[in-house]
Amino acid sequence: MTEVLFPNAIIDELRRRIQASRTGNEQGGLLLGYRKANTLQITSYTVPQKWDYATPVLFKRSMRGHKKLALNEWRRSGKTVDWLGEWHTHPGGAAVPSFTDRQSWQRLVLHTKKPMTFLIFSDHGLYAGLQQPIPMSLRQLRQIEENGGATMFG
Q1: pTM above 0.70, yes or no
Q2: Which CATH number fits domain 11-56+66-144: 3.40.50.2000, 1.10.287.110, 3.40.140.10, 1.20.58.340?
């Protein structure tokens, strides 16, 4: 079973993004880190870029800015950091994946052929999920451990 390790600082920073948003539009970005035996270890993320498209109910990530940031991180790490998933917000809504979210996640794992993790932040909570490519399945992750510096979902 794949588990996902998030530094609490990253979760807190992303939560603050939704609280600080003045536009009421969705926000999102990539989750980057390391693939280990049965663990995805998140170490960084990208934030919305000027080429992204956002409304109160939609966030479309442009490859343009996020890809460059991810490639820079990959090079800086000696080609060990990987794209592990994505995060986005549902301002004013529930932290539940929409039909559009689920379709997008399935397309991403068909492309990467690797498990990917997804976070949705809302005013009312946090959704953490893991999309597997084979068999194609989405599993909601639950917090299984937390210490002062990180939270493990599985």
Answers
A1: yes
A2: 3.40.140.10
